[in-house]
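thread from #wetlab-drylab

HS: before we spend reagent money on co-crystallization trials with hypoxanthine, can we at least see a predicted complex? here's what I'd submit
DV: go for it
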Amino acid sequence: MLAVIGGSGLAQLGNLEVRRRKRARTPYGKPSGALAFGCIADCDVVFLARHGDGHSVAPHEVNYRANLWALKDAGAGEVVAVAAVGAIRRDLEPGALLLPHQVIDYTWGRRSSYFEGPGTPLKHIDFTEPYSRELRSRLLSAALACGEQMLDGGVYAATQGPRLETAAEIDRLERDGADVVGMTGMPEAALARELSLQYAAITVVANYAAGRGDSRRAVPLERIGAVLEEAMGRVRNIIDRLCRQ
Ligand code: HPA
């Protein structure tokens, strides 16, 4: 089964015929919202809105451990995460889709492992390649097959939020080699790896990052909704195609 985690702008998957909803409980607490089960073509899909059904859970307050655990427990083997980002790299524009191949984690204070706490044995995971090579390649083929442009590769910087960054912070992320910046990519990717879930993220550029493009003086937050709404239509096409190939 394919799991889809929807971020800002993707609170539901319009092309998913929902057959059942479940409010899951996990040893790590409650996920962000109900799991929605259904089908796209012949593919079983479970969908979860990362920020909850009413978009009320902030990036640093998301219970990432409960979310991934609930999806795994429901029978998911792979996860396509969708996440809004700001563009750091100069050739990226609002509306662009990018499939990162690497991540740098700047978050702090989040519960970021299942292997912690009394009585839990310590385990290290390999995270050299944080995203599933195989799932990335299938997503790229799906995008190609349905004629949607999605850039292959990039470095995702995961920041703590919920505030946006300063221009100097974005300059630093750029010097670090980051192409896009978002607030939810970690620890989600690492937890998926701990659970042996194949995980890839479709990032959707919502805005130029602070200090760049038309965000030179301030990020125009009022425009983000419309950008994401249009772009999520293309993301749905790609997921639809993924389920048909
Ligand atoms: N920064 C961090 N996260 C984001 C941004 C941004 O500019 N845009 C959308 N998510």
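DV: The domain at 2-244 is CATH 3.40.50.1580 (Rossmann fold).
HS: ok that's useful, forwarding to the group
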